[in-house]
């Protein structure tokens, strides 16, 4: 009977739960779904991470390639994130070029990397003006159950911490690069940004970590990215209902707590992964 | 003048405006690896009794142990994940759905729409986002192999979508994709005549290597009798639904290779059945007696 009511009046169904300060899957308004993290499973990639946030599954694979540094910044490398939402993850996505949501997510991840200084682009430069690393961070969604932005940032962070790039130096005589695959070094990760997404219901109630049904019924979404020094890196609020200052402050505090939880999980996983 | 400019633009790499862009050109570091002198990259294997890199035997039906699991993607009707050695792939099935076009053929039977995709980080050299001809070929092979196994006449005016994503390619991706897709179709409850299982091998001179890894697939061009073979089989009916062969091989070798692949598929069957049984048990709780 509940299933029938849910199909016919989904908004009312959710409202009844929210009145009791809980959600259909039994969570509280401020509770996250179980987060599982698996690092380094893809051996062909230089770094990889698989994140499961409840049912939402995101995999990030990082491959390093060599290129000439950009003309306007000869001492920097490149970091190119791309989020893909293939038709595999949900029936709402059609095959072909990336849709609006995928493009928005890619741009969001690019902004997070830029604003949070997670990695210094100068570290990616091998020889100034001649050779630098390009880190292609390809993020793919395997199961779309809401809140992909959070999962994407965790996956990206996990994969970056797992990256092992071989040593490269330029041979002066031939002027060609020489790569030593036997010597691999990790990246220097300066900051650890973590995203925390909220959905706004009926202009007043804010819930954390929405599932795909809750996202569809929400009247607004907001994502807050903080780093481990309790500093704000990014706030992403694409339209939707307006939010008062104090509610925003609550969101930021919740995001800071979430940051600590995720970083703790990440450290535990990294300790358990045996070094290659 | 305009025509000339258009021609120049076509020659360059298609600019992908919908994705975050990196540098115009970048090379894989593998191209610059120093070749250590006096040691060839491939150790030539001449004797039949010598083992392969991972300990399996040459000339014997020795496939990698397969791990299969159904029902991973919560949003899909049916899904399956296969891991064989380092090759990892995931498949999800959506449908049957109403089809957009309504022509004569659609009225009588359904359609199977397949998509085979390699993740950019799946191969040693990064695959660009835009699909190349290799993926399109493999998609077509996948569809042709799966079609005879599915009872499409039971789903008129509908289409069933099969999406395969290769997370890591360590050889015989197509063969495992066929197996994965069949398991996902069965998990989705699509009626089928039989599971379609895939097996591939690499003919290396006199002996064959069943279920080759990526390194074994890129064979030595100098020796003769080199080739690859992928076979899709319906085990209970013992019928071959797909066969893909590349390279130059002698007639007897090809016949022997097909037999080896068929045996490889038959050996895979119990594992596939176990996987499906487990998934059914998980979905439907045991009746209370």
From TrEMBL, chain A:
<keyword id="KW-0698">rRNA processing</keyword>
<dbReference type="Pfam" id="PF03725">
    <property type="entry name" value="RNase_PH_C"/>
</dbReference>
<dbReference type="InterPro" id="IPR033196">
    <property type="entry name" value="Rrp43"/>
</dbReference>
<feature type="domain" description="Exoribonuclease phosphorolytic">
    <location>
        <begin position="193"/>
        <end position="256"/>
    </location>
</feature>
<dbReference type="InterPro" id="IPR027408">
    <property type="entry name" value="PNPase/RNase_PH_dom_sf"/>
</dbReference>
<keyword id="KW-0539">Nucleus</keyword>
<dbReference type="Pfam" id="PF01138">
    <property type="entry name" value="RNase_PH"/>
</dbReference>
<keyword id="KW-0963">Cytoplasm</keyword>
<dbReference type="InterPro" id="IPR001247">
    <property type="entry name" value="ExoRNase_PH_dom1"/>
</dbReference>
<keyword id="KW-0694">RNA-binding</keyword>
<feature type="domain" description="Exoribonuclease phosphorolytic">
    <location>
        <begin position="31"/>
        <end position="166"/>
    </location>
</feature>
<dbReference type="InterPro" id="IPR020568">
    <property type="entry name" value="Ribosomal_Su5_D2-typ_SF"/>
</dbReference>
<protein>
    <recommendedName>
        <fullName>Ribosomal RNA-processing protein 43</fullName>
    </recommendedName>
</protein>
<dbReference type="InterPro" id="IPR015847">
    <property type="entry name" value="ExoRNase_PH_dom2"/>
</dbReference>
<comment type="similarity">
    <text>Belongs to the RNase PH family.</text>
</comment>
<keyword id="KW-0271">Exosome</keyword>
<dbReference type="InterPro" id="IPR050590">
    <property type="entry name" value="Exosome_comp_Rrp42_subfam"/>
</dbReference>
<dbReference type="InterPro" id="IPR036345">
    <property type="entry name" value="ExoRNase_PH_dom2_sf"/>
</dbReference>
Automatic annotation (TrEMBL), chain B:
<feature type="domain" description="Exoribonuclease phosphorolytic">
    <location>
        <begin position="63"/>
        <end position="191"/>
    </location>
</feature>
<feature type="compositionally biased region" description="Basic and acidic residues">
    <location>
        <begin position="45"/>
        <end position="59"/>
    </location>
</feature>
<dbReference type="Pfam" id="PF01138">
    <property type="entry name" value="RNase_PH"/>
</dbReference>
<keyword id="KW-0694">RNA-binding</keyword>
<dbReference type="InterPro" id="IPR050080">
    <property type="entry name" value="RNase_PH"/>
</dbReference>
<protein>
    <submittedName>
        <fullName>Exosome complex component MTR3</fullName>
    </submittedName>
</protein>
<keyword id="KW-0698">rRNA processing</keyword>
<comment type="similarity">
    <text>Belongs to the RNase PH family.</text>
</comment>
<feature type="compositionally biased region" description="Polar residues">
    <location>
        <begin position="25"/>
        <end position="44"/>
    </location>
</feature>
<dbReference type="InterPro" id="IPR036345">
    <property type="entry name" value="ExoRNase_PH_dom2_sf"/>
</dbReference>
<dbReference type="InterPro" id="IPR027408">
    <property type="entry name" value="PNPase/RNase_PH_dom_sf"/>
</dbReference>
<keyword id="KW-0963">Cytoplasm</keyword>
<feature type="region of interest" description="Disordered">
    <location>
        <begin position="13"/>
        <end position="59"/>
    </location>
</feature>
<keyword id="KW-0539">Nucleus</keyword>
<dbReference type="InterPro" id="IPR001247">
    <property type="entry name" value="ExoRNase_PH_dom1"/>
</dbReference>
<dbReference type="InterPro" id="IPR020568">
    <property type="entry name" value="Ribosomal_Su5_D2-typ_SF"/>
</dbReference>
<keyword id="KW-0271">Exosome</keyword>
């Amino acid at each position: 009977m509940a299933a029938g009511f849910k199909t016919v009046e989904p908004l009312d169904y959710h409202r009844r739960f929210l009145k009791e300060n809980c959600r259909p899957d039994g969570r509280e308004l401020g509770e996250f779904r179980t987060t599982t993290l698996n690092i380094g499973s893809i051996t062909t990639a230089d770094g990889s991470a698989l994140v499961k946030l409840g049912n939402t599954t995101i995999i990030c694979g990082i491959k390093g390639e060599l290129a000439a540094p950009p003309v306007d910044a000869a001492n920097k490398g490149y970091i190119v994130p791309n989020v893909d939402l293939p038709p595999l993850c949900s029936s709402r996505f059609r095959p072909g070029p990336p849709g609006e949501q995928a493009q928005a997510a890619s741009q969001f991840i690019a902004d997070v990397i830029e604003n949070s200084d997670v990695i210094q682009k100068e570290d990616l430069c091998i020889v100034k003006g001649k050779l630098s690393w390009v880190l292609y961070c390809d993020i793919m969604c395997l199961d779309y159950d809401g809140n992909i932005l959070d999962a994407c940032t965790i996956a990206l962070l996990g994969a970056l911490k797992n990256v092992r790039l071989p040593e490269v130096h330029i041979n002066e005589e031939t002027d060609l690069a020489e790569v030593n695959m036997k010597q691999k070094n990790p990246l220097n990760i300066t900051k650890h940004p973590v995203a925390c997404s909220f959905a706004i219901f009926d202009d007043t109630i804010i819930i954390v970590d929405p599932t795909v049904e809750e996202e569809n019924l929400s009247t607004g979404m907001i994502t807050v990215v903080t780093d481990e020094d309790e500093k704000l890196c990014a706030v992403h609020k694409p339209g939707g209902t307006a939010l008062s200052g104090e509610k925003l402050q609550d969101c930021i505090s919740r995001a800071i707590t979430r940051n600590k939880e995720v970083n703790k999980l990440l450290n535990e996983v990294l300790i358990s992964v045996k070094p290659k | 003048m305009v025509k000339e400019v258009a021609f120049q633009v076509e020659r360059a790499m298609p600019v992908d405006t919908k994705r975050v862009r990196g540098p115009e050109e970048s090379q894989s570091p593998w191209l610059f690896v120093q070749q250590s002198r006096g040691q060839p990259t491939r150790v030539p294997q001449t004797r039949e009794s010598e083992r392969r890199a991972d300990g399996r035997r040459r000339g014997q039906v020795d496939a990698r142990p397969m791990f299969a699991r159904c029902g991973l993607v919560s949003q899909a009707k049916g899904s399956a994940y296969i891991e064989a050695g380092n090759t990892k792939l995931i498949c999800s099935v959506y449908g049957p759905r109403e089809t957009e076009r309504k022509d004569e053929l659609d009225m009588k039977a359904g359609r199977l729409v397949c998509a085979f995709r390699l993740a950019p980080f799946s191969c040693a050299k990064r695959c660009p986002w835009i699909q190349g001809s290799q993926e399109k070929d493999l998609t077509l092979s996948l569809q042709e192999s799966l079609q005879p196994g599915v009872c499409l006449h039971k789903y008129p005016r509908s289409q069933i979508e099969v999406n395969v994503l290769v997370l890591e390619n360590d050889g015989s991706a197509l063969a495992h994709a066929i197996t994965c897709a069949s398991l996902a179709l069965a998990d989705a409850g699509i009626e089928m005549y039989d599971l379609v299982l895939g097996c591939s091998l690499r003919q290396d001179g006199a002996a064959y290597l069943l279920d080759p890894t990526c390194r074994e697939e890129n064979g030595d061009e100098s020796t003769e009798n080199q080739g690859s073979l992928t076979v899709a089989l319906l085990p209970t009916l013992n019928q071959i639904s797909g066969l893909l062969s590349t390279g130059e091989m002698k007639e007897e070798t090809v016949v022997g290779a097909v037999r080896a692949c068929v045996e490889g598929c038959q050996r895979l069957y119990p594992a596939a059945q176990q996987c499906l049984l487990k998934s059914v048990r998980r979905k439907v709780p045991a009746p209370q007696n």
